[in-house]
C-alpha cells in the first residue's frame, strides 16, 4: 500500500519508503519479524512492533541495514482509517503482473483511495491522480462498477462533468452517497471546485480527530522511554 | 482478487485530452504498470547515485512526523537535550 502502490497505479512517480499492511496475528507477526531480521531492519520510532499496537492503529517503523536494502524505510500497519479488515483488503487485492515473472500484491485501488483520505496535502493530489489514471485506462470499457467508483472518488471536475453527461441514471443514484454530485451537471466551475475542497477539508478534519488519541499515546510512550 | 497485466492495460487506455494535467503526467498515465515500475526504479537508482536521503521529508501534516523531528532520538531520549561534547 502507500507510495509504491501509487506508483504502479499511476498516482505518483517515486516513493522512498515501503508501506506494508499485515494481518495482525501472532504467527504472521513471527514471519514478519523473520523477514525484518533478514533485512537487518532496525526499529526507528515508537511503538514496538506488536499486535496490541498494530490493532490500535499505530504504525511500526523500521530502517533496513542489509547492504542490498541499505537505509530503506519500512512502515507497517494493520488498521488504517477508512480501511476494511485485512481479510477484506486481501480478498480485494490487485495482483499486478509486472512481467518477467514479477508479481506484486497491492491493496486494491478503491481501498488505496480510501486509505489516502488523510490530513496531508500530498495524499489528496495522489487520490486525484490515481482516479485520473484509472479513468483514462478504463473509460472505454463501460463498466458500471468503474463508473460508480469514479462518481464516488473522482476529484477532477472535467471527469465528473463527462460522467454526468454520459451516465445520468447512475449520477442520480450516487447523489445520496456523495452530496457534491448534486451540483452536476450544470454547476459553475467555481462552485464545483469549492464543493470538492469542502469535501476534502471534512475528511482531513476527520483524520485529525482519528489520530488525536493515537498521537497522545505515542507522546506518552516517548516520555516514558525518555524517563527510563 | 483482480489480476492486471500489461496487455489488458494497453487495450483500454484512452486519453482524449479531457484532463488538464501536464503532458508529463498524461505521459505517465499512458505507461503500463510495468513501465511505471521500471521508470520508478530508474528514478530510484538515480536518486541513490546522487546521494539522495532516504529519511522522510519534513512533513508536519503527517501523524508520524513527531517520530522524525530533530531530536526525536537525541541524547537521553529527551528532545530538549543535545550532546555538545563527550567528556
Features:
heterodimer, A: 228 residues, alpha+beta, 2 domains, 10 helices, B: 87 residues, mainly alpha, 4 helices, 41% helix, 3% strand
Your description of this structure?
The complex is a heterodimer of chains A (228) and B (87). Chain A folds into 2 domains: 107 residues, no CATH class; 89 residues, no CATH class. Helix content of chain A is 54%, strand content 12%. By secondary structure, chain A is of the alpha+beta class. In chain A, strand 5 and strand 6 form a beta hairpin. By secondary structure, chain B is mainly α. Chain B has 2 domains: 31 residues; 33 residues, no CATH class. The longest helix of chain B has 17 residues. Chain B is extended. The C terminus of chain B is likely disordered. Chains A and B meet through helix 1, strand 5, helix 6, helix 8 and helix 10 of A and strand 1, helix 1, helix 2, helix 3 and helix 4 of B.
Ordered list of secondary-structure elements with their pairings:
The complex is a heterodimer of chains A (228) and B (87).
Chain A lengths: L2 H7 L7 E5 L4 H13 L3 E2 L7 H6 L3 E4 L9 E5 L8 H6 L2 E6 L2 E5 L2 H7 L5 H18 L5 H10 L3 H10 L1 H7 L14 H39 L1
Parallel strand pairs in A: 1-4
Antiparallel strand pairs in A: 2-3, 3-4, 5-6
Chain B lengths: L1 E3 L1 H7 L10 H8 L2 H17 L15 H4 L19
- Note the total helix count of chain A: 10
User: Which strand order do you get reading across the main beta sheet of chain A?
Assistant: 1-4-3-2
CA distance, first residue to last residue of chain A: 35 Å
Cα Rg of chain B: 22 Å
Number of domains of chain A: 2
Percentage of residues in helical conformation of chain A: 40-55%
